[in-house]
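Weekly structure sync, notes
Attendees: PL (lead), two postdocs, one rotation student
Agenda item 3: pending single-chain targets
PL asked that the sequence for the first pending target be pasted directly into the notes so everyone works from the same version. It is reproduced below exactly as submitted, 727 residues in total.
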Amino acid sequence: MRGHDQGSHNEVNGVVHGPSVQAGTVHGGIHIRTAAPAVPQVLWQLPPAVALTDRTAELTLLERHRAQAAREGHSCLAAVSGLGGVGKTALALAWLHTLRADFPGGQLHADLGGQSPHGPAEPAEVLSRFLRALGVPPQAVPSGIAERAALYRSLTAELRIVVLLDDAATAAQVRPLLPGGPSVTLVTSRQRLSGLTLEGCHQLHLEPLGLEAAVELLADTLADGRVADQPDDARALAGLCAGLPLAVRVVGARLAARPHRPITTMVRALTEERRRLDELAIDGDLSVRGVLDLSYQGLPSTAARLYRLLGLHPGREFGSAVARAVLAGTGALEPRSDPAPAPGPKPSDALELLDVLHDGNLLIDVGEDRYRFHDLVRLHAAAKACEEETAEERTAALRRIADHYLATADRVEQITDPGRDGLPRTFGPGPVVTEELGEGAEAALDWLERELDNLTAVIRRARTAGFGPVGWQLADAMWPLFPRRKHYDHWRAVHAEGLAAAREAGDTAAECRMLTSGGLGELGAGRFDRALEMFERAARIFAARGDALGEARTLNYRGLAHQRAGRPARAADLFARAAVELPACGDARAGGLARLNAADVALATGLLDRAATDADAARTTLLAADDPYNAARATLLLGRVLLRRGAPERAEDRLSEALDVLRGVAAGYEAARALAALGEAAEQLGRPELARRRYQEALDLYRSVDRPEPAAAVRERLALLGDTTPD
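Predicted structure, written out during the meeting:
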């Protein structure tokens, strides 16, 4: 089994390290293609507002509370509670959007998943997203929830911002997410969050619409003259909807699709359905089940099947490719080793069916080929799947969903890390639907990042659905995302689940991969001892299996852990052993990376001759292994050695050579390091203007790839040269 590349570069938790896997970034086969997107200065995360019916009184109360808080000089906190489908989020958005001019600091939004099938969102994960949105680089996000909350409050202490915390489960979930400063925070929940009273929270319970307001909403939804022409039937129908906006809109959409059907027909049908409502009680309101049953019965058979099978999707959102996957076929769950596609529905067919569900208000289109269910509708869809699909059919559909994500993630890995040795993948009987990815490695990584929550949910679900090995296989296929874009919380969670799945399957090769992959995540997050423990556990398993190459590869990992923990002598010893044992076991390239790691330690401890010898040997080996990226990193280190020796002209030759290669593979961080070193060379040669230009270019690159500590060092050098460039 081939492990991860064992070089070391990058920086973690504000500590800059020499060129390789030292910061949770694994190199060789991992090439940073483009710079990370810049964080917007002002965040506007709120979803669009929708039209409200008869909520004037509630809006007035919320605004009155805000005005009072402003007069008293403190932030505004309000919580809107009520039945599912009653319009809490619609009310929140309608009010908060009116505040945009008064709160120019921006808007933050989080779905706290109070009704999620996988449990509420962890406050620590939400804080991580908020901090990243506020411009905190991934590697600078603290590991503990208390530290994250403190940093979040500090960053928002002077900002006039609006925060929407949607679908909260408890007051305890909300408290760490309250910002500092002159902010407005609105929480929605199906629960009365009385525990927030201590924080000065204004509680507002949202009741269902009154009968006349429900009739008005029905008229707006239909947008024709039937409500005016049939007022009694309209009132009867609105009454059957129990004042829930969700129910009214679903019934209205169904009638709108049948412009010649009288309202009384719907009234009779819905009345007949009410006797079946006790089959599924949702928040004690039985009308929603009747309304959804009626709408469901009017669906074409293929749309109805899509509806109920999508209810099995483990995540909150999905794209049209998932719709194609669940409809693609049936069959026994006999695994296969390749994801070869078989005939299935065309993309246009899936989109048409999704449009049918959306037009019937059974599905929410959130834009950019993304869809989700309202919580109550998702429960209804899942219930219909249990009623109308056999256990085997449900498992097969869930397996096709998992195979879709696994096959697409595997394709991303092939694009971004073509040289990485992958472990075998197993697929169900198919067909397997793979997502269409954009051009290039960055587009492929964007897909992984967008689907991160879904991928995590699928990994967790696979262990209980009868195909546990998919869990570790998917975790392994997701590897390219983590060293590039960090996401340390997901990194740890995904590999913990993958490790459990591998152990349950008794697959020691997979267990070792999860230990080393997960260990590198622990290393990147600064948990050096935990990382070392995982690497040593993998080494013991490799030894027990008689896998000398696998055991030798852990020498590099263990060396990185010791180096990061401040034990350079122990790290140097492990790297030296790896440099000998890896080539002897047939992996010359990994041996070259070990020499590069050893050179990095030698340079850091002032052993310049040893650093030069190891870096030169590493460069020769890596060029022979057709690894120009890591060879360029070795060339960069040779240039840094020459700088330390006071030979700036020779250093410039080496550094320029490295920079040309690193720019060619869009390795932004390493290119920035080369430019910073070239700036030092220019200073030593007495050319301050050239030094200033090189430092400025290095600073721009460091900023683009979110490396604050080396950027700060470059700013200090610019300041010494008389530069007044603002941060």
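Discussion points:
- The radius of gyration is 29 Å.
- The chain has 32 helices and eleven strands.
Action: rotation student to compare against the earlier draft before next sync.
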